[in-house]
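Researcher: Next sequence.
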Amino acid sequence: MAAQRERFSTATRLRALGEQAAARVYRAQNRRLRRPPRRTRLTSRAALLALVLCALVVALAYPLREYIAQRADIAAQQREADEARERVAELRDEKARWQDPAHVRREAREHLNYVLPGETGYLLPEGDGGENGDQSGGADDGADSDDGADAAEAEGRDAEDEAAEDATERPWYDNLWDGIDRADQAR
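Model: Next structure:
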């Protein structure tokens, strides 16, 4: 009975369980060291999920692109409508200005050269270019103010514009020689 008691004692059971656990751990470590690492395999569920996702992307790509394009068109149409509203407001303002007799009188005097009774109107002829292509305009030669300098710069730009227009009508070699002559002239 004593042998039987020792066989079922707690200490004996614990020792047996510990030995069994140690043996399992040892076997697991040996298996892990001997076997190459497992490859992850694509399961049929994962493949099916990937296929469904790809089908959704393909099915939704065109409608999404059309939706974005339509939103851009709507934004462009709204922008054009806003610009048209602004233009209508400007035209209404201009119409209201033309209803004012003082504005009509001022525009007639400026653009149509009208004068009131008792006034004397003067028209200055525009220069048709002299020998050097200078325009005889209304710039004062002896003016010391900044306005005279601005007028001279504007006159210089007009002469350059005229030279550019002439340059398109002449052969290239004439343009070349004129450019050399202008470079040699002192400013």
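Model: The radius of gyration is 49 Å. DSSP finds six helices and no strands in the chain.
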